[in-house]
Design brief:
2 strands; 16 helices; mainly alpha; about 450 residues; two-stranded antiparallel ribbon; globular
Length: about 450
Amino acid sequence: MRRPLRNPARIVPIAFLGAIAVGTVLMMLPASRQGPDPAPFVTALFTATSAVCVTGLAVTDTSTYWTPFGLVLITVLTQAGGFGIMSMATLLGLLVSRRLGLRSRLTAQAETSSLGLSDVRQVLLRIALTMLAVEATVTVLLAARLWLHYDYPLGRALWYGLFHAVQAFNNGGFALYSDGLVRFVSDWWICVPLIVAVVVGGLGFPALFELFRERRRPRRWSVHTRLTVWGTLALIAVGFIAMLAFEWANPRTLGPLDLPSKVLAALFQDVMTRSGGFNTVDVGALNQETTVLSIGMMFIGGGSASTAGGIKVTTFFLLAFVIWSELRGEHDVVIGQRRIASASQRQALTVALIGVALVGAGTLALIGLTDGVDTDQALYEVTSAFGTAGLSTGITGELPATAQVLLAVLMFVGRIGSVTLGSAIALNTRRKRFHYPEERPIVG
C-alpha cells in the first residue's frame, strides 16, 4: 500500500496536485469572483494552477475578475507554491546526497556545501525567513512609493505592495493592473525592487545560502553556486544588451522612451522574461528577434531549488561546458577545478531534451486545438507555460477551454518536472555488476 511513496520524489507532484485541487475549489466559490456567478471550472483550474506553479499566466483580467477574497487566495497559493518549491527541492537535494556512498557523499558535501544541513526544521526555517525578509522589504519600498508619489491611501498602498512583492519573489507574475505594469515603465522605485526580488527568488535557496555565507570568499563557492550566480549574471547581461538593441527603435515598445527609461525597461523585461512574469512593455508588440530571444530565456529559466522555472541555469551551462570539453577533445568536464561526474552530465542532458520534447509536442498540440494561432504565438505561450514565466502575447484568454487545460498541464509538468525528474534519476541510480562490450556508433 505504501509502495508509491517509497520514492520521495513522488511526494512533490502529489503535494502540488493537492494544492491545485484545493485552490480550484476555493476559486470556484461565489465569494472569489466579481458578479453573481462563480468562476467556471476551467478558469478556476487554470488560475489555481498558475498560482501554485508560480507562473502568472491568466485567462481573465486579474484586477477586475476576482474579488478581494479571490486576490488574497491567489497570493496565498503563490506563497505556498513558492515555499513548497524551494523547500521540497532543497530537501530532495539533501536526500540525494545522503543516498550516495561514503566516497561520493564526501565529494558531494565538498561540491554542495550549501546542502550539507542536517536539521530539516532549520532548512525550512531559513527558507521561510529568507522569503519573508525579502518580501517585507519589497513591500515597504513599493508601498512607500505608491503612497507618497502616486497618492494611494496607505492601506491600499500596503496591499498593492504586498501582492506584487509576493509575486516578485516567488516569480509569480500576477499583477493588479489590467496593463501589467506598463504604467511604471519609467519608475525606478517600482521596477528596481521588483527586479531584485525576482533575481533573488530565482537563484534558489542553496545558492543564496552559500552566497551569503561565503560572500567574501567566492573561490570557495561550490560548482552549483558558481554556475547559478555567474550564469544568471551572464544571461542578464546578454539579454539586456540584445533586448535594448532589438527594441531601441520599436515605436510600440522602447522607441518613445528617453534613454534612462529605455535602459530600465530593457533590463526589467530581460529579467522578467526568464521567469518573473511582469511586463512594462506590450509583449505582443515585441519584434520577432526579441520574441525568439524571449523564448530561449523562458526555456532556460532560473536556478535550481528556486521559485523560477525552465530547465534551470545550471543545466544549461553544464551542457555548455560539456559541449566545450567535447569540442576540445577533453575526456573530463572540469568546472572550477572540479571534475563533473558523468551521471550529472547525463541528468542535465535528459532534463534538457525532455524539456525540448515537451515544448515541441505542446506547441503542435496547441496549434491543433486552436484556429488562427500563429506558430510563433503558440511556441511563445507553450514555452511560457512550461518555463512558468507567465508572459503572454495576449491570446491566453481567447484560447478554447481544451487549449487552456493543455497550458495548465504544461505549467504543472514544467514546475515540478525538472525537480522530480532530476531527483528520481539520482535516487534510482544503481551499480551494475557487469558491462556489455563497448561500441562506438557514428555521431554527427
